[in-house]
Amino acid sequence: MKKLLYNSLLILSIVCSASCKKGGTVVPVTPPPVVPPSTGTPVNYLQLAQETHTFTINNLLTSSYSYRANTTTHSNNCYEWYNVSQIYADAAMVSVGQTKHLAYMNNTFKFMENMWDKNDLRGGYFASVNLDGTGAGGDKYVDDNALSGMVYLEAYEVTTGADKQAYLAKAKACGDWLINCGLWDNVYGGGFYWNTLKPDKPTQTNGLALQLFLKLYSLTGESIYRDWAIQVEMWLNNKMFDPASGLYIWRIDGPGEGKKHIEKFTYDNAIMVEAFILYSKIMNDPGYLTKAQNLGKAMNTTLWNSVWKGYVFNTAETRINPAWCAWGSQAMIRLYEADKNESWLVYARENINRLNVANRNPGTFGYYFFAGFDGQNRSPEIETVDQAWMQRIQALLSKY
């Protein structure tokens, strides 16, 4: 997954750390008018999710049931975590009764087999492939494979019969690849590297692995997944937690003890909120729900823009992104589901409302890759992953 950081002078030099393999100078499109903060007007989130899906199938879906990375610079590329994010979005639609999304979900799941490494007994998904499924190869990413496993476990929950078992089997294969891929070692006292090039060890990579191990343990009862979950959780808290802010830092890299990059990202911490909620339920430890609640409060202290009512991408970036910022809403929804505190839903809704104003094209219903909180400075890319996350979160919000 990619993270973009602007320096303090807002020079358009992009630090790219993601399997989506895109970068370069951001060229803004014609800016929309500046808009005020949201007014609290009721929103039909299911309709918005449906409109987003219509945009996606009309502009990004291929005849192979893969998805183009975007409509501009990478329209002939197909990325693993973009595809599975759309499966995630469709699973959310099925969960609210929109059963027509089963076909999209299952067909893209079948396409994903083109991305699986069949020449290595350990398997694992490659990060990219051609739109027709050919050309798989190159690097593999721990976060992408962990997310794929988690997506499949949600698809498992909304399917039946052979489809249900196929999703569970592939989620288990993703978890087994994490265990056997050789990307966990004693450098920095443990932790998973981001990918097979071993550039660094990020919070989000390990947080997603933690989620997958917990879920697999809950479904299979196999102790190996429990043991890995405990190991990953201990490393994250020993190495990546910043007690001063109550948040998790970005990543650690470099020689020796390593350099800690202390930027705080919304989606890193959202992932950890979800991981702690799972840990509380699956390990029967209510203290982890408290940890999740405290982390949610820290997010809403440091990562929330109280003027525009939305989550920042990170503490060094002034613009917002529909996928990474929307992840904050998912964490708030999960907190509400865990403790029924309505205040979490307020943050979840306001954040999505802000993204709908700042990043959404009201004519096409597509979401721009980045924009300012005020809707200015939109980047031209229309990414599949951004559409997927906006579809997903709005489907989830429609329940409440």
From TrEMBL:
Zinc is among the record's keywords: no
Annotated InterPro entries: 6-hairpin_glycosidase_sf (IPR008928), Glyco_hydro_76 (IPR005198), MUG_Protein (IPR053169)
Keywords attached to this entry: Signal
Swiss-Prot/TrEMBL GO biological process terms: carbohydrate metabolic process
Cross-referenced SUPFAM superfamilies: Six-hairpin glycosidases (SSF48208)
Pfam families named in the record: Glyco_hydro_76
Residues annotated as signal peptide: 1-18
Annotated protein name in UniProt: Beta-galactosidase
Biological source species: Pedobacter chinensis
